[in-house]
Amino acid sequence: MRVSPCPPKLITDMHMKLSIVLSTQLTQFQAATFSGGLETNLAQISSLGYQGVELAIRDPRLVDMDILSSQLAKYNLQVPAIGTGQAWGEEGLSFTDPDPKVRQAAIERIQSHIPIAHKLNAVIIIGLIRGIVKPGMDHSQAMEWLCEALQACSLEANHLGVRLALEPINRYETTLINNIDQGLRLIEQVGMDNFGLLLDTFHMNIEEPQMENGIRRCGERIFHFHVADSNRWYPGAGHLDFSSIIKTLIETGYKGYISGEFLPMPDAGTGARNNIIYLKSILNQLFPDSDS
Ligand code: LER
Ligand code: MN
Question: Phi/psi of residue 195, each to 5°?
Answer without folding.
Answer: -115, 120
